[in-house]
Amino acid sequence: xxxxxxxxxxxxxxxxxxxxxYLGGRRFLAREGNAIQLxxxxxxxxxxxxxxxxxFYWMPEKYFTWKMAMWVLLTDGGFLIGQWGFFNAQKHxxxxxxxSLLGLKxxxxxxxTMTFLGERYSVWQYTAIAxxxxxxxxxxxxxxxxxxxxxxxxxxxxxxxxxxxxGVQQVVKLIGGDDPIxxxxxxxxxxxxxxxxxxxxxxxxxxxxxxxxxxxxxxxxCWVISMWGLYVCFGLLxxxxxxxxxxxxxxxxxxxGIILSFFAIQGLEQQQSVGVWLRKTAAALLMFGxxxxxxxxxxx
Length: 300
Prior knowledge:
Layout: H1 3-31, H2 35-53, H3 60-63, H4 66-89, H5 95-101, H6 105-117, H7 123-140, E1 141-142, E2 145-146, H8 151-175, H9 180-202, H10 210-215, H11 217-237, H12 239-246, H13 249-263, H14 274-299
Antiparallel strand pairs: 1-2
Helix pairs in contact: 1-11, 1-12, 1-13, 2-4, 2-9, 2-11, 4-8, 4-9, 5-13, 5-14, 6-8, 7-14, 8-9, 9-11, 11-12, 12-14, 13-14
């Protein structure tokens, strides 16, 4: 199997497992605890996954530099802010909708790079951003008006995740080497391994019990697998192409949402009309198309 095929499969695994993790997170919030407790429980699970891999990807000469510490801090700090915002948003926004809205991360990345890195974009990229914003409005349209409930938390998540993405790219770049898979997995062990220490330290402060960590296993395990796929995908295909493949999570979550809605599984997805699902489908496809256009314009 060639590099392109492995990268695409890794990206699709990421999209699917992220969609499953959203459902696991919503289940935890309905039955186990609050958003901060879910975030800490998830960090512990992800950190354990990183430490299991650490002996296979231990690169001390790459890890312990001030520049690396700065980018790890941005990656982990942005991720924590993003997770906090996302888990709070899940209280108000169903998983099928939030997965597509996360496509707006491309807008957040654009604003951050323009502000702090001085980058400029083409007309096609701005067109794609406008398309993503239109898709978000269509996704949020309900009963003749826009539904803004939970959007403040989602906005926090978008900028947190966007900051973390910038950090991830730099961490993988600093690790270097000829093996993109090893590069990606080493980056995962470093960033998530550090978060395990923090998660364990604050468990008593936020009254996180090991029973809660057990309850977060569906979300945490899905997220660990999704991150393994993400880092490998980024290492093989780069962040731009990788984000295009990840955008399929909106469509995947939509399909999962329709299935759950059909069976009326309480607490995971609302039962909605055919018209609502058709609108969500159109919005998800528009968001996916906008991100593909953005990536192609960036590549060109």
